[in-house]
Design a protein that fits this description.
By secondary structure, this protein is α/β, with parallel strands linked by helices. It has eight helices and eight strands, in the order αβαβαβαβαβββαβαα.
Length: 206
């Protein structure tokens, strides 16, 4: 089942029985980014905070393991699944190996998702932890940084354990989610998920 099919089949939530959604904490304004900010505002996710029939559980896996502020880190030579399989590492911009801490963060995020009986995760894309569509392969500050299609470590951990993960840039999927939360919501037919973004299509030459 694709993410969009899954979203279309979600139950209709109520204030008494809200939809249980796990989200990267920065997406709803928590100042847990590497530089101590929330990286700005993300209207596509902040919109979710206005509904009364959704229960958001925010969590920042990198803050859990490494604190805030902290260095930026990326996956080298693979994706989050490869990290969990012990094939590749998570390295900071100064060369410190954060692999073990990132795996522990992913296990904590999974524990939270399981304990809260989460029905969906909405997470920060491109992140080595939370990315679900596109991440960096190696240092993002390199003279010619390289992107790859793939998931970060925490998104991969959730996916391996049966949770659906979308990003703040999956606008078509989010439109479906809004319509589940509000029967009067008019879905934007022009909304596209991140994998249909013009930059992504051109970069990966799909």
């Amino acid at each position: 089942m694709t993410d969009k099919e899954y979203l279309r089949n979600l139950r209709i939530p109520t204030p008494e029985n809200p939809l249980r959604v796990l989200t990267s904490a920065c997406l709803i304004g928590t100042p847990c980014g590497v530089n101590g900010t929330s990286y700005g505002e993300y209207p596509s996710v902040l919109k979710l905070t206005h509904y009364k029939n959704i229960l958001l559980t925010p969590f920042c896996p990198e803050h859990f393991s490494f604190g805030t502020p902290r260095e930026m880190c990326d996956i080298y030579g693979g994706d989050g699944f490869d990290v969990l399989n012990g094939k590749v590492k998570v390295i900071t911009e100064s060369g410190i190996d954060w692999t073990d801490g990132m795996i522990k963060a992913s296990e904590k995020m999974l524990e939270i998702a399981q304990n809260a009986n989460i029905e969906l995760a909405v997470m920060m894309d491109v992140s080595a932890a939370c990315g679900s569509q596109v991440i960096y392969n190696g240092n993002r500050f390199a003279p010619t940084p390289v992107h790859q299609i793939g998931m970060g470590v925490c998104a991969a951990q959730l996916t391996l354990n049966g949770f659906k993960v979308i990003s703040q840039r999956d606008f078509e999927s989010l439109e479906i989610l809004y319509s589940k939360l509000d029967s009067n919501h008019v879905v934007n037919p022009d909304a596209k998920d991140h994998d249909q973004n013009e930059w992504v299509l051109n970069y990966f030459k799909k």
